[in-house]
Amino acid sequence: MRRQEGMSSLLLVLLVLVLGSLTLQGTSIRHQAQVSQAALEKAAVTDSAHVESLLEWGRMLPWTVQPTDHCQTHPAFKGRVCLRLFVDGSGVLIASSGEQTRWQTGTLIDSTVQFDRHGWSDFCPLKETVQCQLP
Asked: Which residue ranges in the chain fall short of pLDDT 70?
């Protein structure tokens, strides 16, 4: 009789160990998914900060006023900023870093580019989206 009581106790301990192991494995998988999601969110926030900084930096640059595309890169940020001027005197400043892109419209006035006051756009402000792509 004693032997049967020992076997049931051993089976109970093994069952608890198996259930604990499965719980820990599930928790580990969920934790890895959360860490991966956090890394993606951190990269998106970093790219967003870089692209907004690039756009503001690009607004302050002394651009040459020829109807061609001009691009600059800033050593502190991944990405680049480009100015695209059109023959009608309008233009668009395009900043891109990673997966993020921002645009700022402007107008050529007295050989200088005056950017619109109302800030940047996170979607292409032009009718033809090809004109919003980086050269």
From this structure: 1-5, 67
